Amino acid sequence: MNNLKDYSALSDEDLMELVKKSDSKAFSTLYDRYSKMTLNFFFKMLWKDREKAEDFMQDLFMKIVNKPELYNSTRPFKTWLFSVANNMCKNEYRKAEVRVKAAPEVFASTVTTSPTTGDKKVDKDAFLGELDEALKEMDQVKRSTFIMRFKQGLSIKEISEVLECSEGTVKSRIFYTVKQLNQKLGHYKNIACLTLIINTIIQ
């Protein structure tokens, strides 16, 4: 394999085997495939803090390049990658809980004012803002499940592997998460996306 075109045709798992052999081109290919996806995941999970998300994404790939032997070759690379990323977020939440107890005013929730949309036009940006705020109020498991499914596009099976639970458990979590969101955002009656999600998650 002497060029990037050859590397781009390789599976994630084959690339990781090359990374274990200190192949820098294989690592670069994986980075190109997943850096943006994992950055977006961290951004949504870590309170939309862009700098923190970028730091976590870089830390994630540093783990890969410095300790590739940690990769469990019996698992698909994508689900293993998100498992590591999800665990990094869990650890950050634990640290945040300690900081909240020490200085709760720093982490006080920002009150989001419901827009006055009337009966004509729905403010999509306002809706998405309130959706993000509602997700922040949920526990880490529900938030990560929702984000992996609807913002990162992972399948039910992939999420079940990331979270090490059954596909039925994933579907149940998503259903009740969406139901809760639908209740919180019910004033956006003209937006059908949450209803569509409820109708399509269990397939």
The proportion of strand residues reads under 5%
Mean model confidence by pLDDT: 81
Spans of at least 5 consecutive residues whose pLDDT stays below 50 are: 103-122, 198-203
Quick one: CATH class of the largest domain? Answer: Mainly Alpha
Task: Explain what you see.
By secondary structure, this protein is an all-alpha fold. The chain has two domains: 108 residues, Rna Polymerase Sigma Factor, Chain: A (Orthogonal Bundle); 94 residues, Orthogonal Bundle (Arc Repressor Mutant, subunit A). It is built from ten helices and no strands. Helix 3 runs antiparallel to helix 4 and helix 5 packs across helix 8. The longest helix has 26 residues.
What is this entry, summarized?
The protein contains 10 helices and no strands. It has helices at residues 4-8, 12-19, 24-45, 50-66, 77-102, 124-136, 140-150, 156-163, 167-184, 193-200. α7 (140-150) crosses α9 (167-184).
Any key phrases for this structure?
203 residues; Arc Repressor Mutant, subunit A; 0% strand; Rna Polymerase Sigma Factor, Chain: A; disordered C terminus; mainly alpha
